């Protein structure tokens, strides 16, 4: 019983008070992304258990900050835009949880590549 209460307290601390991800605006050179979930169904129609599906390093950019400042104080814009598909590191970023959805904030220079489709 105490374990259940402790788990709920941890979940409350980890989740934010945000009602919608649209109310979150990244600052400076930060980029808000959501990982793209791997397909749980194969091309032949076989459903895979979620535990066997590997987490992808691909993400969709949802929002971008105005950019960082260089050593002269001039604004340097981010290299990606909202809607871009990007390659992100397996680990890192700052997790943001809104409801059941999970997002991450990365610095622009931590984004590994932009995926051109």
UniProtKB/TrEMBL annotation:
Recorded hits in PROSITE patterns, A to Z, give: CHAPERONINS_CPN10
Kindly give the CDD domains that the UniProt entry links to this protein: cpn10
> Can you provide one Gene Ontology molecular function annotated for this UniProt record?
unfolded protein binding
Family annotation (SUPFAM superfamilies): GroES-like (SSF50129)
By its UniProt entry, which SMART domains does this protein fall under?
Answer: Cpn10
Q: Does the keyword Chaperone apply?
A: yes
Q: Where is the signal peptide?
A: none
* InterPro entries registered for this protein in UniProt: Chaperonin_GroES, Chaperonin_GroES_sf, Chaprnonin_Cpn10_CS, GroES-like_sf
Its keywords, alphabetically, are: Chaperone
Q: Which GO terms describe its cellular component?
A: mitochondrial matrix
Tell me any Pfam family this protein matches.
Cpn10
* Family to which the UniProt record says this protein belongs: Belongs to the GroES chaperonin family.
HAMAP family, per the entry: CH10 (MF_00580)
What does this protein's UniProt record list under function? Eukaryotic CPN10 homolog which is essential for mitochondrial protein biogenesis, together with CPN60. Binds to CPN60 in the presence of Mg-ATP and suppresses the ATPase activity of the latter.
What name does this protein carry?
10 kDa heat shock protein, mitochondrial
Source organism of this protein record:
Botrytis tulipae
Q: What is the lineage of its organism?
A: Eukaryota, Fungi, Dikarya, Ascomycota, Pezizomycotina
């Amino acid at each position: 019983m105490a374990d259940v209460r402790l788990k709920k307290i941890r979940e409350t601390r980890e989740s934010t008070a945000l009602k919608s991800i649209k109310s979150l605006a990244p600052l400076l050179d930060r980029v808000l992304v959501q990982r793209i979930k791997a397909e749980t169904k194969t091309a032949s129609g076989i459903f895979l258990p979620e535990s066997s599906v590997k987490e992808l390093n691909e993400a969709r950019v949802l929002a971008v900050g105005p950019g960082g400042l260089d050593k002269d104080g001039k604004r340097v814009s981010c290299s990606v835009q909202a809607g871009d598909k990007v390659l992100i590191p397996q680990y890192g970023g700052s997790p943001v949880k809104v409801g059941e959805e999970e997002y991450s904030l990365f610095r622009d220079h931590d984004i590994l590549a932009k995926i051109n489709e």
